[in-house]
Specification:
CATH superfamily: Vaccinia Virus protein VP39
Helix content: 10-25%
Shape: globular
Strand content: 15-25%
Structural class: alpha/beta
Low-confidence stretches: 1-6, 11-23
Order of helices and strands: HHEHEEEEHEHEEEEE
CATH class: Alpha Beta
Oligomer: single chain
Largest sheet: 9 strands, mixed
Number of strands: 11
Distance between the termini: 11 Å
């Protein structure tokens, strides 16, 4: 049986089906860094340093907007449970994730940062699962877990999973993680450094993981502005440059 899967991934059509009060917009609508700087009343001369620090949380914002436009929210608490997988250097900018409260004022957040190679932050206990509250009102709860995602026992199922700069084709452990995501039907979004990385990931997943497909890639308007030059390929890259969603086909 031939199954045709839509690979569309777009921010253009907003049709959220959710349980929030429809008289209150669930998020602040920003389209690019210029809009964010205006929203924060930041001076242009400070924009470079700010975007280098905030591109992690703003990429999460970019993905969460798409998620809220396309997924059905069935819980009445308006708490978003997000698991960040394959976490490494982004943990150093954990304080910037407080910005989610300004961008999504209708929501509370439960954020889990997960990965065995997570760089250490002074607030994280070594090789342990640690929980802390990011804001004084308790609207963001954060967990740090030093394990591969598929090795964790007893973790709650999230609303979605996000993996920054995943390099799915380069790390064999992603295969088991992605099969775990597929089995549990978890909406999963990832970013890559460049179009070449994206196409390599797509080809690897299509060729080696049955029932796993990749959406069309979407240029991230909130990528890090700093160029990274690959000495081998001579390709210019950016952190969180291309965003895509994994599409899972479950045969009947």
């Amino acid at each position: 049986m031939n199954v045709e899967l839509s690979t569309e991934f777009s921010m253009e059509n907003e049709s959220p089906v959710t349980s929030w009060d429809q008289t209150v917009r669930p998020y602040v609508q920003l389209e690019n860094w210029k809009g964010f700087f205006n929203f924060k009343n930041l001076l242009p001369e400070n924009s470079g340093d700010v975007s280098k620090k905030y591109h992690w949380v703003m990429t999460a914002y970019f993905i969460l907007r798409h998620f809220l436009q396309t997924e059905v929210i069935t819980t009445g608490s308006l708490t978003l449970n997000v698991h960040f997988v394959g976490v490494e250097t982004e943990i150093q900018y954990i304080h910037t994730f407080n910005e989610l409260l300004n961008l999504f004022p209708s929501f509370k957040f439960q954020l889990s940062f997960i990965g065995p190679n997570m760089q250490h932050n002074s607030s994280i206990t070594d090789n342990a699962q640690t929980t802390k509250i990011l804001d004084t009102n308790g609207k963001i709860e954060v967990k740090f877990i030093y394990q591969l995602y598929h090795d964790i026992v007893g973790i709650d199922k999230p609303d979605l999973v996000i993996g920054f700069n995943a390099g799915i084709s380069a790390y064999p452990s992603w295969k088991t993680t992605i099969l775990h995501l597929k089995k549990n039907k978890i909406p999963s979004y990832f970013s890559e450094y460049c179009w070449r990385c994206y196409y390599t990931t797509r080809n690897v997943l299509h060729g080696h993981l049955r029932g796993v497909h990749v959406s069309n890639g979407l240029p991230n308007n909130f990528r890090c502005p700093t160029q990274i030059r690959d000495d081998c390929t001579k390709i210019t890259q950016y952190r969180n440059n291309i965003v895509f969603k994994l599409l899972f086909h479950h045969p009947e």
